[in-house]
């Protein structure tokens, strides 16, 4: 695919739904249509916009991203379309707006729902004519700009409420792309958590930093209202806390209190019923006092641990390791191990047979 900056072409995902979205985006990128990208805050809308630009014939030309909500209301028009000297109080020089700066390339209008309605009308005219009028100018200027509009609010609802122009919505949404929330693509959580941890390893120069399995379970059971951005911040906070404590294993004690599994397990269990046993097994381990040396030291325990924390993150391997860890911490006392895991003794025996751990003391 054609494009400019190769570093902008990476969208980490293990979600079939997102892979399908990316395939549609790659086809859409070859057109010059306006695109409306919507999704919750922190889902990666601007990253998807960068991909559309990178894959498009405009990929070697300017990419300008503007947050419409951050533009001063009295200066929105001049910021977008430019102004001539003396066109308003304080306009001491002539200067181009974002449309001219993006000429030949792509202009991203983030939080487009926040544009004042008078500016919405002028934006519609620019989209139709591909010409802009600087404030105070007597003649229009031709521009060639592709518009990508981003919104975390439903523009169709706003249009019905009279808060967004219907004709502009139709003009912007020649193609619509919806980014699902992180809770709708749980398979991306361990992948992204490991990616952000790798960045933290490089920053702190601590290549041995790694997630404790119970921490990964806690991440997987959280609802992530702030989506990928929140997961990134939580990972960096946890890595910083582990670094400060002088440990290399990021245990649940390094995570924010809001990620406590007991607070979020009900919603997670509804969305992922097959993970309920694993959540129960790891819940007590997560609240148990764990230290940076809590990894299994017996050579026979290393293989399940490697499977549990590897790139595929097999849930069965994670549960198997949780059982072995509970038995290690209780020195093989099965009743106490069952209590620690939050399961019945009978369930523990069934799992010992299932994972061929019957030889364990």
CATH superfamily of the largest domain: P-loop containing nucleotide triphosphate hydrolases
Strand proportion: 5-15%
Taken together, the total number of domains comes to 2
SS element count, helices: 16
What radius of gyration results from the CA coordinates?
26 Å
SSE string? HEHEHHEHEEEHHEHEHHEHHHHHH
Question: Helices and strands in order, then pairings?
Answer:
Elements: H1 16-29, E1 35-38, H2 45-55, E2 63-67, H3 76-81, H4 98-101, E3 106-110, H5 117-129, E4 131-132, E5 141-142, E6 146-151, H6 155-160, H7 166-172, E7 175-178, H8 188-204, E8 210-211, H9 213-221, H10 227-245, E9 249-250, H11 261-271, H12 276-287, H13 302-309, H14 315-329, H15 334-341, H16 345-354
Parallel strand pairs: 1-6, 1-7, 2-3, 3-6, 8-9
Antiparallel strand pairs: 4-5
Helix pairs in contact: 1-2, 8-10, 9-11, 9-12, 11-12, 12-14, 13-14, 14-15, 15-16
Descriptive report:
By secondary structure, the protein is an alpha/beta fold. The chain has two domains: 175 residues, P-loop containing nucleotide triphosphate hydrolases (Rossmann fold); 171 residues, no CATH class. It is built from 16 helices and nine strands. The protein has a five-stranded parallel sheet with strand order 2-3-6-1-7. Strands 4-5 form a two-stranded antiparallel ribbon. A two-stranded parallel sheet has the order 8-9. A hairpin with an 8-residue loop joins β4 and β5. The N terminus is likely disordered.
């Amino acid at each position: 695919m054609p494009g400019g900056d190769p570093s902008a072409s990476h969208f980490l995902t293990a979600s079939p739904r997102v892979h399908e979205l990316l395939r549609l985006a790659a086809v859409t990128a070859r057109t010059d249509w306006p695109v409306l990208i919507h999704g919750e805050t922190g889902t990666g809308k601007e990253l998807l916009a960068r991909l559309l630009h990178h894959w498009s014939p405009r990929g070697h030309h300017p990419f300008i991203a503007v947050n419409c909500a951050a533009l001063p209301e009295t200066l929105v028009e001049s910021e977008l379309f430019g102004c001539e000297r003396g066109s308003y109080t304080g306009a001491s020089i002539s200067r181009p707006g974002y449309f001219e700066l993006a000429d030949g390339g792509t202009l991203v209008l983030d939080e487009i729902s926040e544009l004042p309605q008078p500016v919405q009308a002028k934006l519609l005219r620019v989209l139709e004519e591909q010409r802009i009028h600087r404030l105070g100018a007597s003649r229009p200027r031709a521009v060639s700009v592709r518009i990508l509009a981003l919104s975390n609010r439903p523009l169709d609802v706003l249009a019905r409420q009279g808060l967004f122009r219907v004709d502009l919505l139709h003009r912007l949404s020649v193609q619509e792309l919806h980014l699902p929330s992180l809770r709708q693509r749980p398979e991306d959580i361990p992948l992204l958590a490991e990616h952000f941890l790798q960045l933290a390893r490089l920053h702190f120069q601590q290549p041995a930093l790694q997630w404790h399995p119970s921490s990964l379970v806690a991440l997987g059971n959280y609802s992530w209202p702030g989506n990928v951005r929140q997961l990134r911040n939580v990972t960096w906070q946890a890595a910083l806390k582990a670094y400060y404590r002088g440990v290399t294993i990021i245990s649940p004690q390094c995570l924010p209190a809001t990620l406590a599994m007991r607070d979020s397990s009900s919603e997670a269990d509804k969305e992922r019923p097959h993970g309920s046993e694993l959540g129960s097994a790891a819940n007590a381990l997560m609240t148990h006092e764990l230290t940076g040396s809590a990894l299994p030291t017996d050579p026979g325990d290393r293989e399940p641990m490697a499977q549990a924390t590897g790139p595929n993150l097999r849930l069965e391997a994670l549960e198997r390791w949780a059982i072995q860890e509970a038995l290690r911490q209780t020195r093989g006392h099965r009743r106490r191990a069952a209590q620690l895991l939050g399961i019945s003794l009978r369930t523990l025996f069934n799992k010992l047979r299932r994972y061929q751990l019957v030889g364990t003391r």
